[in-house]
Structures are given as C-alpha cells and as structure tokens.
Amino acid sequence: MKCSVFLNGRFAGFHDNGDKLAEELRKKRRAGEVSAQMNVAYYKRTDEVFINTDSGRARRPLLVAKSGSPLLTNEHLEKLEKKELTWNDLVNEGIIEYLDAEEEENAYVALYKEDLKPEHTHLEIDPSMILGYASSQVPFPEYNMAPRVLMAAQHTKQSLGLYASNFNLRTDTLAHVLHYPQQPLVQTRVYKALENQKRSSGQNFVVAVLSYEGFNMNDAVVLNKNAVERSMGRSTFFRTYNAEERRYPGGQRDKMGRPEEFVQGYLGEEAYMHLDADGIVPPETPVEGNAVLVGKTSPPRFLKEISALDVETEKRRESSITVRSNEKGIVDSVMLSESTAGNKFIKIRLRRTMIPEIGDKFASRFGQKGVVSLMVPQEDMPYTRDGVVPDLIINPHAIPGRMTAGHLLEMLAGKSSALDGQTKDGTAFSGNTQEDFENALRNAGFHYSGREVLYDGKSGKRIYAKIFMGVIYYQRLHHLVSLKMHARSRGPVQMLTHQPTEGRAREGGLRLGEMERDCFIGFGAASLLKERMIDSSDKTVQLVCTKCGCLAVYDKIKNKRYCPLCESSETTEVEMSYAFKLLLDEMKAIGIFPQMKLKERA
User: Fold this and answer.
1) Which positions ≥6 away from 110 have C-beta within 8 Å?
2) Which of 353, 481, 522, 602 is the most exposed place for a label (fewest CB within 10 A)?
3) 601 inside domain
C-alpha cells in the first residue's frame, strides 16, 4: 500500500514511505531549503501525509530537541544577550520551529529541560507559552478550571481602561475611558513584557469574601459607596455623531443651519435652543435625549413636476442630527471638515461621566463576574481592627462551585504586595508561590491565611467568624446599566406588520417570547395572553364577508361596506392580529384564496 500525500487538503500523489517523507521535509525546513512556514504531519493509522502551507493556521514556537537535549545552547543565549543573534536567526538555523495543530500530532514535547528524554522531539520555551495573548495575562491560571480562564480572557476584552493614549484626538463611534487605571499588584511575565501596565484596564480593590444581608446572593456584589464617591471605578463614555451636507441628483443639496418654521417636520423652537447661528451646537453644552446637535434640512424625497402655471418654492424637510433618545451628555468636541466628495462634514463627540451604580458589571481576572446589587455607606460596612473597610464584598459561594482557587491566591498575593510594596509574579506554572505570600503576611504581623476578624459597621459588634480579606485586581466591564435600561408604554410600530419596533435604539417594545407564552398557557391566563399578543401588539379590526369568507372593504365616500369578490353587503367586524391579515394578503398574492368561516359568538 502506498502512502497518500495531501497538499493544503488536496490530494497530490502517492509515496512509498510517508514517515520518511515527513522526516525529510522537516530536515529540509530546518536547513532552510524549504519555507519555514511549511508544516508536515504523518498519520500512521491512515498512512497519510498532510503538508500545509496555507494561511490562517495557528502556529506556535518550540525548541527543537535531539537525543535528549535541546539544540539551543548557552552559546546561543550569550549571543542573544549581546544582540549578535536574533529570534529570526534561531528560526532560520532550525533551533526554533513553529508547529501548527497537525504537526503537533507528531511531536513529543517536554515541559521542562529536566524532563527531556531521548524520545522527545521538542522542548517548550516556557510552559506558559501554551496560552494566548489574553489568557497569558491571567495570573495563576493553572489553579482554575479551564472554562473560567477562557471566561477571564473574554472579560479582559470587555474591561474599561485607557484604550488609546490619544483618545482626545480620536472620533471613535463609542469609547470608554477609565479615570484612574492602576496596574495590577499581581502581574505575569507576559503582561510586563508587553508593557500592558501602560494601558491598564482595572483597579486594585480591597475585597472581603462574606455574605452581606443577602444582597450579594449568587453573583451580585456589594460596593463601598464612599469608595465610589472617591471615584473608584469611575469612567467616561464618549459617543460620536456625524453629519454631512449631501448633494442630490438635480442640483439639490442639504443645508445646515437653524431650520425655518415652514419646513416639513419642524421640531419646534425649543428643540433648536442649543444651536448657534450656523446650526451647530457649541462645545461644553449639556444636552438631553432627542436634543438637536446639528440643524439640517434636506430636499423633498420625491421631486414634483412643476407646470407652467404652478410656480412653487422649493419645499424642504427636517433632517437634523439628534442625540439618541435614551442617552444624554455634554458636547465634548466639534470637528468641522470636508468629506472626500467635497461636502461639508461635521463630527460631534458627546461625553458622559459614568459613575458605578446598581446594575453595573465588575469582574476579577478569573471569570468571577458580578453585578452591583447594593451601594453601602462606608460607616455601615464591616471593618477590621485597623479600620480597613473593603471596597467590594463577594459571596463565599462564588468560589467552591467555580473552582477558581487562583482568585483566592491573587487576593493573598495582592495583600502581601500591599504590605511589602513589591509586585508579585503570577505567571502560569512558575512565579511566586503561596508560601511566599504567607511568609510576607507573617512578617507584616498578619495571619498567614489572609483571614481577619471583622466588626459589623452597623452594630459595632464583632463578627464571630474569620473572614478572608485581600487585595485583588477588578475590572469594570462596559456592560453599564444606564446604556442598557429600556422601558416603554406606547411607541413606534413597524409599517409592514404594525407590531412594535425592535430594540432599545428604536424605542422598541419588550418582547414576550415563546417560552413566556407557554407559561401563560400553562397558568391558563387567557386574558393576559390576549392582551400581550393582540391588544399591546398589532390589534386590528377587519371586515369579513359572511357569505364567502373573504376580507370585505368599507367605501368611505358611499358609506357602504361590501365584499369585493361576491359583492355581498353582509359583512361583520372581526378582531384579529394585523400579522394574520398580512398573511392572508400574502396568500392572495400568490394565488391562494383563504376563506374565513365565522361562527356565532357564544
């Protein structure tokens, strides 16, 4: 049997010895005869060779090992330190090679140099190299369940910080900037190497693991109100609005300025009160929802033919740029420019200070996310014998079920770091150990376990339990309640189905889904079901012909009801959902004749 060879997933031919072919290709790659981007894998069970040279493969570097020792010697390391050698030189010399997911199937990788045996093919540069960009910034990941590390990596992307140092010059559609970002007290080597402390995205909180009157049940967290007033977790939200004077066919164009009263859709004098003479809002103006930022009028959507006798002045319609209905803020900056088409172009940036409030989301670097459920004044919070009050209280049940021991370890590390003034190393599979933190706490006169005696802030009585308390890096996530809050009684409906619009931005209705409907049916709440599905949605009253079951019509001029099909005047009013009426119309459009058979009401 000959071995099948595949190049980038396509069959390329046969070979007598697949294992030997794969080995030869690897030798050539290390010698520089074949591209370093090429990867080859031999599958013994199916006797197939897969050669990959295409883009989009995740590849990671490993040290090549032969006869139980790595090809990287102390000589190479010395040259690297002297900058006589570079990383690319090591790759070109075949000392380091990149493996993709398929070639890893043929590799036998040792974690540490001491573990190397003659059968090993590669050695890890560092065990933490198995982690990606986001997960390698999580301290002590080996102490946590894998899904939690993955979740922590996701939270890192959602955290507020200094996303760009030139944020004041940028006009991003939306942006969040944390006011006082801090670098974590526990860092990984990757975090330091990438200099991420220059773009910190969180703050070090004093955290107590304690239940607080049931307010932090499940994933809820309790915040120290005074700490928030001292601007803990405070951020600014920026949103940019754009306006352009467009040109239209027929020589017409938009005009910027305060719209005149005769303009179609004029919003009233009050709506334009913030605008300057040029129709643009000046900087540092506080604006509420639906306030006009740029006054603008456009030509009518449909051009009318003007006859010889009908000399008509140009009708214009209102098309001003307004603040989103559910947002407010202060005009931060106004930028006037010209678009590529040569039109006048305006960008207006709004800013709004976002103070942590009930409903905002915080998360540690271990997938321990929580929503603020209560803001407690400092005098009512529990305190230690030294008068230290926690900034945040999380529930003890959050730890055992999620198995995030790293969370407790970072609290211990952060506490010892606050006492000895040194940042701690939380790199995966290396770095500082629990013993290091315990010794630092002992030396500072604290209990080695990180537990403390706390006193109730309201009664002043001692809490008869040792409470675990430490310092840990917490991130404020961009899921802010003020940007999500939504309610409506009456509001806009869709043109086609007559049902309420969808989504917060369009002042949409609150959806009652299939599962909620099932609950109503289960409870037998028929009237409530009718109210939600018909009355509060798209109720309509249609005329139905009692003879042929077709939808009848009402002629307003003749004040007459009749059936357009059988011309009968025997019609009755039927209450139905407009979506159902639409369905009947669509069925008629494709040649199906739906008939409604009516019964007398009981």
Assistant:
1) 65, 116, 117, 120, 122, 123, 124
2) 602
3) no
Domain CATH for 542: 3.90.1800.10
pLDDT in tens, 153-183: 999 999 999 999 999 999 999 999 999 999 9
Q: What region, left, alpha or beta, does residue 346 occupy, with left being phi > 0 and alpha being psi -120 to 50 degrees?
A: beta
Q: Measured at the alpha carbon of residue 424, what is the angle toward residues 422 and 425, in degrees to the nearest 5?
A: 145
- Do residues 346 and 286 share a domain? yes
Question: Which two three-digit tokens encode residue 248?
Answer: 């239209």
228 shares its domain with 366? yes
Instruction: Look up the CATH number of the domain holding residue 187.
Output: 2.40.270.10
| Closest by CA position to 232, among listed 355, 134, 328, 336 | 355
CA distances, 212 to each of 375, 388, 394, 463 (Å): 11, 17, 9, 12
3-class secondary structure, 578? helix
Whether 367 and 220 share a structural domain? yes
pLDDT of residue 302: 74
213: pLDDT strictly greater than 60: yes
**Other C-beta atoms within 10 Å of 224: how many?**
22
Could you tell me where the DSSP H helices lie in 189-256? 189-193, 225-229
pLDDT level of residue 304 (50, 70, 90 thresholds): low
For the chain, what is the mean pLDDT?
92
Number of domains, the chain: 4
* pLDDT band for position 599 (cuts 50, 70, 90): confident
Q: Is residue 486 included in any domain, yes or no?
A: no
Do 228 and 362 have their domain in common?
Answer: yes
Is the same domain home to 170 and 186? yes
- From the centroid of its chain, how far is CA 523? 37
Strands 361-364 and 369-376: antiparallel
The number of C-alpha atoms within 13 Å of 343 and in the hemisphere containing its C-beta is 15
Q: Is residue 431 in a domain? A: yes
Catalytic residue ranges:
219
In 307-396 the beta strands, taken as DSSP E runs, fall at: 317-318, 321-322, 329-338, 344-354, 361-364, 369-376, 383-384, 392-394
In a domain, 537, yes or no: yes
Contact partners, residue 322, CB within 8 Å, separation at least 6: 290, 291, 292, 293
Nearest to 418 by CA among 388, 453, 383, 382: 388
Q: Which domain holds residue 296?
A: 237-302+314-354
- From 65, 110, 107, 71, select the one nearest 89 (Cα to Cα): 71
Domain boundary, last residue among 101, 125, 149: 125
Token pair for 78: 């010395």
- State the Cα–Cα distance between residues 446 and 452, nearest whole angstrom: 8
309: confidence class by pLDDT, cuts 50, 70, 90: low
pLDDT of 96-132, one tens digit each? 999 999 999 999 999 888 888 999 999 999 888 888 8
What's the predicted TM-score (pTM) here?
0.84
Query: Are 158 and 296 within one domain?
Result: no
CATH code of the domain containing 321: 2.40.50.150
Query: What's the pLDDT tens digit per position in 226-246?
Result: 999 999 999 999 999 999 999
**For residues 125 and 109, is the Cβ–Cβ distance under 8 A?**
no
